## 1
Amino acid sequence: MPSQLVDQYFRADKLPQIWCPGCGHGIITRAITVAIEQLGLDPDKVCVVSGIGCSSRAPGYLDFNTLHTTHGRALAFATGIKLANPELKVIVIMGDGDATAIGGNHFIHTCRRNIDLTAIIFNNNIYGMTGGQYSPLTPKFDKGTTAPYGNIDRTFDICDLAAAAGATYVGRGTSYHANVVTSLVKKGIMNEGFSLIEAISGCPTYYGRKNKKGGPVDMMQWQKDNAVTVTAAEKMTPEQLEGKFLIGEFKNKPEPEYTKEYQNIINNLQGRDV
Amino acid sequence: MSKKIRLMQGNEACVEGAIAAGMKFYAGYPITPSTEIAELSAEKLPKIGGKFIQMEDEIAGMAAAIGASLTGLKSMTATSGPGFSLKQENIGYAAITEIPVVIVDVQRAGPSTGQPTSPSQGDMMQAKWGTHGDHPVIALCPSSVKETFDLTIRSFNLAEKYRMPVLLMMDEVIGHMREKVEIPDASDIEIIDRKRPTCSKEEYLPYKPEANLVPLMADFGAGYRYHVTGLVHDETGFPSNSTEIANDLVRRLVDKIEVNKEDIISWEEENTEDADIIIFAYGCVARAAKTAIKLLREKGIKVGLFRPITIWPFPEERLIELSKKTKMIIAPEMNLGQMVLEVERLCNKHTKIERLNKVNGEIIYPEEIIAKIEGVL
């Protein structure tokens, strides 16, 4: 029930949010709160950290311990919080440019460190807050205000990048497949280690308009038509998968978690000193 | 009162002071000549249940230290030269969000990579203006190993008391020099902790200032669920587009130091009572100045020392007072003239001001100060 969710987990007096009509971010934010509700987490022990950009405004609407940090740095702040107080469940919300361009170094190293954070990247393929510049997730040859003749950069695959860098739980959903996002966020929070969920969102205002992707409904339809679940993809040929993208759980490979490893050092030292 | 006497390096005294002050978290990145601070923190913190983390870069070190402080742990980071430049972004974040944290800058010669193992005082103005926008600054400057111990404790106390980043501006000489340090008994050390709210969760306003202009700070996880942002915010902590709120916030942040200046400002004087000439010096240069004063007084030249301990806020009033009864102020600095700008701004109506500057990576020797004074007499 949306209204019950709002009462329970949102700061209702801060709504409506600032996002444009048709933006996918509200759906993804809701999907995250559904995961928190289904897990029955204590709101006093939940901390939501973000960087800078459209997606990073999400924590302001959520009734937890919330921290809106600097551009790209959310994971570094979150790492300090988690290591200082491992009892907190720390969720990090970032945008595609925020996480993979200016925050790229923090991103790969947080994956490598396998600290127990759950990061959700709202990927709308563009810098929305600043008005539509191309990001590391803007598809090649698409346009942005800083790529008026088409973007010649190649894109990252956020999930491949996270898995290769050492994240122990990785998955992808979309604002159309909100239930998939909820399920991945739930499993990500339960994973003791660094979890990365890419949530594909739609930006009709900038990315959509610049690239003639139609309105919000067309962009949702595109997500519906082009997302293929990992299981369905197994039965498809490369030709059938051409132009499609995968959703679902890509990696679930637990490894020793950073704060627990550090606590072992403390315990060993204190045991030895006594 | 029991005392432990130890021979130690300035960087080591910094870590000992931090632990005495209650440091429980350190995040940083290796950089010469501050690295020993990270190494010793890595060794000592887990033994007392604290946490150390080497982050992927300087920016992350600053961010993690701030994040940890928000959960209630006293935290610190240390750096030098290029690292101090990289930390500026999040120093500004700590200033506007009012999160206590201590930043140590063991100054080395710049700009850029410069001379990594050579001392400098090139970051004194960066300490004040390094991050963008108007914001409060507290920066302390030790000139001995023992004072590094004391001022590290004071840095934590001021950070906690005024909810802000505090800068400890060391230099390579002070960081690497070894001296005798008398470590006082823990019971003889004054420790200040941030004031936490005791009101109900509903009543808590995270950015409503108390009488001293400092708001009460709840730990993340303690049950007061609130919002922290680097955007201009009102007393509730949420962003605001109001010009009035923006004006009030920035002025309160700066006034928080302005109205409490007397509590913060400190300096040292030596032989100023009868001095015709005052040497204005800080950090390792003040040590050379003390030797110069001794030698000059033996020759009958009445020279004294004014050494600011808090570089920011600057001990304005006392320096103006002294300048009115002195013939000259000499300001030797290991930069091309930074703090002398303050001296000139405040005192040039009252006395003559001479500069002595060195940027070759060498310390300033007493003989150079003596030659300068004899040259202008």
## 2
Amino acid sequence: MADVYLNSKFVGTADNPAHFVGEVKDLRRKGLISEEVSVYHDAATQEIHLYSDEGRAYRPLIIVKEGKSLLSEKHLKQLEEGEITWPDLIRQGVIEYLDAAEEENALVTYAEEELTPAHTHLEISPGSISGITTSLVPFGNYNQSSRLIIGSKNQKQALGFYAANFHLRMDMDSNLLHYPQFPIVKTKIHDITEYGQHPSGQNMIVAVMSYDGYNMEDGVILGKASVERGLSRSTYFRPVDTQELRYSGGLIDEISIPDKDVKGYRSEHDYRFLESDGILYPEAKVNEGDVVIGKTSPPRFLSSMDEYNLAAATRRESSINLKHGEKGVADFVVLTENEEGNKLVQVRLRDERVPEIGDKFTSRHGQKGVVGILVPPQDLPFSESGITPDLIFTPHGVSSRMTVSHLIELLGGKVGALAGRYVDGTLFEAEKEEDLRKQLLGLGFKEDGTEVFYDGRTGKRMLARIFVGNMYYLRLRHMVANKMQARARGPIQLLTRQPTEGKAKEGGLRLGEMEKDTFIAHGASLLLKERFDSDKVVVPVCEKSGLMGYYDARKGRAVSPLYGENSEMSYVEVSYAFKLLLDEIRTLGIYPKLHLKSKY
Amino acid sequence: MKNDHEKAVEEYAGQLSLSVLQEVKEQLPASISKADLTKVMDTLVAAHGTAKVNPGECVGLVSAQSIGEPGTQMTLNTFHFAGVSEMNVTTGLPRIIEIFDARKDIKTPMMEIFLKEPYHSDIDRLKKFAAKIKETTFGELASEYSLNIFDQVLKVTVNRSLLADYDLSTKDLVKVIKAKVKGFNAESSDDEITFSKSGKTQELKDLYNLKEKIKELKIAGMKGVKQVLPVKRGEEYIVLTSGTNLKDILALPEVDGTRTSTNDIYEIFEVLGVEAAREAIIREVFKVIEAQGLNIDVRHIMLVADIMCATGEVKGVTRYGVVKEKASVLARASFETPIKHLINAALEGEVDHLTSVVENVMINQPVPVGTGLPGLITKMK
């Protein structure tokens, strides 16, 4: 006896649960009920659950009967010759879909040799235990699982050919890699997903060695000549947009070159890039602060009285200009309207990004690194045949992370490049490392992938042989050009008078709580005070009341809030934040009284 | 001659610590000349001077950093010891927090009981001792309860083999129960005890309550000692317990009170006093740090322990403990619940003399440590 639930609603009971479940499965395999229906028997609670609703993820498995896979040689042959296709296999009851619940009743193996009579299903490919991005890591089964996760996460951040209609799109922050390539070491998933249509990396010659320490702590070194020939070059696109907003009273913004009588008019020089429609001309090179779209807005706080007042009716300037640290070339302009029917102008800026020190690169194995130096070609180490690496990777990155697949890809890439073919690195089904080694030997190289190298600067032969080969490297979207920021003086916050925060606001780098502690621990008391002087103020304090007063310019002296001019006022240097704290304490109804005392 | 030396050494009492003086006294060769002795002592004073902390050195903050930095690594690897043979003890960061907060109810109270001569080498005597101190409730001995509604009696079947282990009979049980529970008649047979109401009013609820009450009734052992585990430690056997009762255990004649201890710092404070509690804090914290394979100088922990015990009782590093003792209003307000502290300070009319670090950072004045400490005095002519 078992209760039967259909989509979690009780519908009846089954006297013989096993028979009932078998019956449902049979009907499904025969195609009499939908292949998307699943049945799950929970023996512990005596419940049978049938599901036919939406929102269940399910996956295909080969059905196993009496320890034998139903997918026969005959099927495979027919598939190869194109006589049957996937739906035919489902119709024939060779393959079925299981959802998460029904999987609980199944015993699945991923190798045909391991089949026993107890098994109910066979995995189509052992690689199907991983997802699409993870399957894109070649030789993934040689790695720790955590490295695969990191590797697949990195691939999502790689620059590539993300859409074929990129030149018509207005994406926020998009990047396009120039000359993307299909990886020499690929997996079956690369073929299935047509990776060649949207590749996101390049095959580089990689040497595993150190070079004056410029690749220590996960650094990578790039060859300057390679970079100048276009290696990993990319374009960064960013739209600047604005719209003509409508205000009460029928007033509206106007996109145009502002008139000279507009409030806040900059100068003719500032509007030099704008055409007569107020939008910059194509291919205009703009830098930070330059006006991209000219705009004027109606005056703010227009009351009914002011409508007749000509002086107050002047419009104000509200042009869009490039923010701090931005630059680009006008690439594409779109004139359209938004949901409310207001005029919308979008200008896409383009910026060519040549790899530079601080840009991030990664292989597909979670081995990311930051460029430490660009080495001129004459200084790069070279092999006997005169090959110089495009990228130098540090050997210290491998030992602790145990990314064996990284090393095998290097070997496989070398074989592929020399033999002029693609190398298969599919999860669990990859070409064998021994075979690759043998082939490398056959191609006239040492089987371990090492080669004799010479130092480009001295011409001397290096003591150790260098492990060198081809690898698929990805450029990641984190580029220094978007992030570099420094300031000595700059904008401050209105409330606290402390420096603003963040790159967009040209902010300072905060010396935080724990950093402060290090100054104290060193006993650098006066240096600490100086560091925190960013918001220092000198305030007059009333000696009688202990409250902060103010300077009255008309009287030419400081005034106490309680005693006016009848008190002695002393000037005290404190941080503005403290002045603020005292103000806030007063809002609590507490009277914070300062007792002044000479410091010396 | 020797006395002369000792007297000469005694003269340095103010300049060197007592333990150093003692060591010098014990190790000085008798033949040393007076001049040489002075030389030795002066060298010692100079060396002792260099080992001292400089005035204005920010020891508290350095201690905080020295404990805090390895502490960040500790959070990551606390999932050790999952149900191994020995007793499960809180270690790692949770234990450190427990100690520094001076919690009164610690997660896993534990005792290490060392025994005196014949007991610590004889495993049988030790086992007997262990059984004796283990707190046994009636509920543990009983195997079955049956409430007879018609006869208004409660029958309890007792596990006979367990009873034998504790060297007890049902008659002993009845004796204990009768002393604690009034208003019931209890009759005992071989492995059964029958309770019936002695008064006139008969209510089922009373019997049910009785059942619940006798379950918790202590039959034998020490209160709080929930589990005992004899363990070999070096050459001798000791008893580990979960649950503590230091006061009563120390009173037992078999126990070696000089080495027996508990990990409940508050209990140590109550039984043995602050100094012992201070030592316990240092020992317990250091035990955790060593177990984690970290390397923190003991003196940092000693400083924290000193601060915790400075008032004569154990205070945690919390807003109710050590922080409450701070003299500065602003310093207290900057650590948790600022408004509460400000309002209370205002009610009392407290004055902040700005003598410590936090306050001076707040008002952007030089902090009185390191270079900010010394002032200049000019001689006026």
